[in-house]
Amino acid sequence: MRTYSVVRNTFARPALFILMCCPPLAISAQMTSVIPLASEPHHHLALHNEYVNVYEVEVPPRGTVQLHQHEFDAISIMMSNSEVIVRAPDKPDVRQRLSDGQVRLQRRGYVHSTSIEGDSTYRNVTVELLLPQQGARNLCAAVIASQELNCPTAGAAPQVPTHKDQAQFETKETRVTLIRLLPHHSMNVGDPGHSVLVVALDTALSATSGENPKSSMRPGDFVWLDKGAPTRTFKNTSEKEARLVSFIFAR
User: Fold this and answer.
1) Which of 29, 46, 67, 125 shows a CA-CA span of 20 to 30 A to 59?
2) What is the pTM of this model?
């Protein structure tokens, strides 16, 4: 290329022009190649109905979640401790430490990619809320990072001997609660007037109903209960608390 440029100097300037123009065009193309969440290859659709899309997400160490856009408000439930770098167009990179069991809101329209740091596999369950959500607010957890907490007083919820409830987040359409099922205890979940989604965060859990035999659950497994469906019994067979996250839908 150097010899060619010297002999045919008339081509040198156009070549320089091309070299100067191409990098910005390449960067622009990368920034505009935003895919929908449903097309992101690490997000695997496990459930779809009129209320939710439930995605199981697993990314190997040093892997990257591709640049994508959230078309619905989504609740992300972490199933691992992870260090990540979040990249959004026209914004500085953000390094985050995410913890097992952390619940976060990713709002409709949010565009980002995520690079996984460290040697641990990144795992979460992402629940897209397909109905329009209004009045989103934190309860006893910082699900919306920029918003203060609105935690109910300790005496607002009745105390039960089997489990502890901690309200996480709510809208006019959806309420998200962290449930800590005590060792060697059981609880029934279901609602005649509402549909319910339950996501397991820990091992040593099983779910049974009158129609189905006992089935063990792993972190990330979930149960969907239609409005008016028979209740499911969740049992903790371990010596430690076992965590569940429940979604109750108003309609």
Assistant:
1) 29
2) 0.84
Cα–Cα distance, 28 to 24 (Å, whole number): 6
Q: Give the rounded percent of residues in the chain with a pLDDT score beyond 70.
A: 83
Query: Structurally, how many domains does the chain consist of?
Result: 2
Partners of 205 in the β-ladder? 217, 236
- Going by pLDDT thresholds of 50, 70 and 90, the confidence category of residue 64 is very high
Instruction: Give the per-residue pLDDT at 118.
Output: 86
Strands (E), 35-92: 35-36, 43-48, 52-59, 64-69, 74-78, 82-87
CA distance 214 to 188: 14
- Higher pLDDT among residues 236 and 211, named by residue: 236
Question: 65, 94, 129 — which closes off a domain?
Answer: 129
Residues 156 and 203 in one domain: yes
Q: Which domain holds residue 67?
A: 35-129
pLDDT tens digits, residue range 144-176?
Answer: 999 999 998 755 566 789 999 999 999 999 999
118 and 151 assigned to the same domain: no
* Strand-strand pairing, 163-170 and 174-181: antiparallel
d(CA 114, CA 74): 16
CA dist 219 and 222 (Å) reads 9
Mean pLDDT of 14-42: 63
DSSP 128-162: EE-S---S-EESSS-SSTTS---PPPGGGS---SS
Q: What is the pLDDT of residue 204?
A: 87
Q: List C-alpha distances in Å: 202 to 60, 125, 197, 237.
A: 20, 13, 16, 11
